[in-house]
Amino acid sequence: MNIPKELKYTKDHEWVKIDGNIATIGVTDFAQGELGDIVYVEVETVGETMEREEVFGTVEAVKTVSDLFLPLAGEILEFNETLEDTPEKVNTDPYGDGWMVKMQISDENEISSLMSADEYKDLIGG
C-alpha cells in the first residue's frame, strides 16, 4: 500500500499536501481501494470558506457514495476538473492526477492535528 511520507493524513482517509498556506487534498490509496471503482466526484464548494471536518464534496463508487471531509478550515480555491471526465484517476493515481481540491488554510495551527504517514499506517493496520 502506498502511503507517501511527505503527506499528512486524516482518520477519514484523506491526504493533505501542505505548500505554504495552500493545501492539496485527495483520498488515500487505502480509501480508493475500499471504495472500488470511482465513477463520479462531486465538489460544489469552490469559493466557500468552510470549517474543519465539514463535508466539501462526495465520491461515488459503483457500490457506495462517501462524503469528503475537509481536513483543515479554509477556503476551497480549486476543484480538479479533470475528475469530471475521468473520475477513475482517483483509483489509478490517488496522490497525483487524482487530487480533488486545493484550499487556502485559515488556521495553520490545525496542521498539527493531522497524522503522519506512520500514524496513518497504524490506523489502517498497515
Radius of gyration: 13 Å
CATH names the topology as: OB fold (Dihydrolipoamide Acetyltransferase, E2P)
Task: Give the strand tally.
Answer: 9
Overall average residue pLDDT: 96
Described by the principal axes of the CA atoms, the overall outline is globular
CATH architecture level-2 label? Beta Barrel
Q: What number of structural domains do the residues give?
A: 1
Q: What is the SS-derived class?
A: alpha+beta
Helix amount, in percent?
10-25%
The CATH class turns out to be Mainly Beta
Neighbour order of strands in the largest sheet: 1-2-3-9-8-5
DSSP helical segment count: 4
Q: Gap between N and C termini, in Å?
A: 8 Å
For the report, how would you describe the main beta sheet? 6 strands, antiparallel
Work out the strand percent.
25-35%
How is the secondary structure organized here?
Elements: E1 8-9, E2 14-19, E3 22-27, H1 29-35, E4 38-42, E5 49-50, E6 55-61, E7 65-69, E8 74-79, H2 82-85, H3 89-92, E9 101-105, H4 117-124
Antiparallel strand pairs: 1-2, 2-3, 3-9, 4-6, 5-8, 6-7, 8-9
